[in-house]
Amino acid sequence: MLAAALVTPAATAADPPVAWQATVGAATRNEAVQVNSFLPRQLSVNVGDSITWTVGSGEFHTVTFLSGAAAPPLIVVTATGPQFNPAAVAPSGGPTYDGAGIANSGLLFTGQQYTLDFTKAGHYGFLCLVHAGMSGTVDVRDAGTAYPSSQRGYDVASRVAGNRLLATGRRLQARTLAAARASGTVTAGTGASTGAWGSLAVLRFLPGRSVIHAGDTVTWTNHDPETPHTITFGAEPAGGPLGAFAPSGLDGPGHATIGSPNTSVNSGFTGAAFPFGTTFAATFTAPGTYHYICALHDDLGMKGTIVVLP
User: Fold this and answer.
1) Residue 70 belongs to a domain with what CATH number?
2) Is residue 188 part of a domain?
3) Of 260, 285, 298, 310, which is the most buried if we count CB atoms within 10 A?
4) Is there a single domain that holds both residue 156 and residue 232?
5) What residues contact 238, with CB distance under 8 A and at least 6 apart?
6) What is the pLDDT of residue 81?
7) What pLDDT, on a 0 to 100 scale, did the predictor assign at position 7?
8) Residue 142 falls within a domain, yes or no?
């Protein structure tokens, strides 16, 4: 009976187009765990129907149909420094898609939507240009074809999959915190692939508060294989998120000496895919309370504190 309730009756050529709804990403209430997945990953619609994707996470995403073209990089490095690539971050392609050309939402943030009308039957893949492995498919059939699922069916399946992935992310966060405490280091973000479902990212310093003595050194490591993070003390570098790309205030590669809570230091982008490595260390020479952030994710709660005792 439940299966029957989740299937939409056969459509007819005279039926009006259906406006389907889908979600891009999911997050825990405190935004610590981000699920980089399309929910659902596969939809079946008919010619003339539309799909509206709504971002349900703190991380930004794109919904992009490439039609076999190469994916444009998110960031390009120019003579003046790194810049977002307009081909990736700006909308393109118009409101309809027939399997040819590129249809790209551009960057979408929490709650923003992207709607695409499908005008030709075919099997179409789409992806997020921000997160590797985050992909899905749309099967577009002739008008009047019976739908294999209802909107409610997609919603239920998406909720189940999203909750399962969020639970996996919470467990990853707990394991990472335990490992960081055991090693006496701080994890600056972590993440993991979820295979066909994309990936998870934990946007937290773990632990978020450390107590040390003057003269001690704290080491941070970004364990996320994809998402960059910064360790930023004092004034945040100008220029928006990419202004924090390069290190500043360091006294050597991957190291800074900090003697005042007012000192400004920025690690630069840490991460496996970035030139400054995955590890950053700072030596604290004076007692005090030192607050720091990830300049990319502080709005999602990625902040930390170092308490330095005499």
Assistant:
1) 2.60.40.420
2) no
3) 298
4) no
5) none
6) 82
7) 53
8) yes
Residue 171 lies in a domain: no
Chain Cα centroid distance, residue 116: 22
Sole residue written with tokens 């739908």: 147
Write out the residue range of the structural domain in which residue 262 sits. 208-309
Task: Answer yes or no: do 246 and 158 share one domain.
Answer: no
pLDDT exceeds 70 at position 4: no
Does one domain contain both 25 and 118?
Answer: yes
- Tens of pLDDT, residue by residue over 8-35, are 555 555 689 999 999 999 999 999 999 9
Q: Residue 35 and residue 190: Cα distance in Å, rounded?
A: 12
Number of domains making up the chain? 2
Q: Residue 88: CB partners within 8 Å, gap ≥ 6?
A: 62, 71, 72, 73, 74, 104, 106, 129
3-class secondary structure for the chain? CHHHHCCCCCCCCCCCCCEEEEEEEEECCCCCEEEEEEECCEEEEECCCEEEEEECCCCCECCEECCCCCCCCCEEEECCEEEECHHHHCCECCCEECCCCCEECCCECCCCEEEEEECCCEEEEEECCCCCCCEEEEEEECCCCCCCCCHHHHHHHHHHHHHHHHHHHHHHHHHHHHHHHHHCCEEEEEEEECHHHCEEEEEEEECCEEEEECCCEEEEEEECCCCCECCEECCCCCCCHHHHCCCECCCECCEEEECCCCCCEECCCECCCCCCCCEEEEEECCCEEEEEECCCCHHHCCEEEEEEEC
| Domain boundary, last residue among 104, 131, 163 | 163
- The predicted-structure confidence for 29-51, as pLDDT tens digits, reads as follows 999 999 999 999 999 999 999 99
Domain boundary among 100, 130, 163: 163
